[in-house]
Design a protein that fits this description.
Blueprint (H helix, E strand, L loop, with lengths): L1 E3 L9 H14 L8 E3 L3 H9 L3 E3 L9 H8 L3 E4 L3 H7 L8 E2 L4 H13 L1 H18 L2 H14 L1
Parallel strand pairs: 1-2, 3-4, 4-5
């Protein structure tokens, strides 16, 4: 699933995602369905994302945006900002919770191909993503952290 917001098209690396997805579609014409949407209302975007196994989020970030977090909570594999800094911060090995979306078409195709050819990894990473959201982005746990910091000051 590749949901494009035309206003942020280049800022989020959608041009690179589209090129990589075109190669993947030609490489696996009967094995994958690539759904690309554009500037959908939020409820339609979430519905489309919910039907996918893999979500292309954004490329030029050091962390996930809200849509990526929602997809991860749904147990989706998300290509997003999950590079070295993110991995070091959360102490998570590369490509086990989210896939780092690099600005490199060949690497994106390689990572997507690996997932297509190793479907059990999609389930594994999706489960890890869901657990990550529960651990690091649960609203009650987050509020408790803020209260603890506030009370300590």
């Amino acid at each position: 699933f590749h949901g494009i917001n035309r206003i942020n098209y280049l800022k989020k690396g959608n041009d690179v995602f589209e090129k990589a997805l075109a190669i993947v579609k030609s490489k696996y014409p009967t094995s994958v369905e690539i759904v690309t949407t554009e500037s959908l209302p939020y409820n339609q975007y979430i519905k489309g994302m919910g039907q996918a196994h893999i979500v292309m989020d954004m490329m030029y970030s050091k962390d996930q945006g809200y849509n990526a977090l929602e997809a991860m909570a749904m147990g989706k594999v998300v290509f997003t900002g999950a590079g070295r800094e993110w991995q070091n911060h959360y102490k998570i090995p590369a490509d086990t919770v989210a896939i780092h979306a690099e600005n490199n078409i060949d690497i994106l195709v390689e990572k997507l191909s690996f997932l297509i050819e190793n479907r059990s990894k999609i389930d594994e990473i999706g489960e890890n993503a869901n657990a990550f959201i529960s651990e690091h982005h649960d609203y009650i746990k987050s509020a408790e952290k803020y209260l603890k910091l506030w009370q300590a000051s």
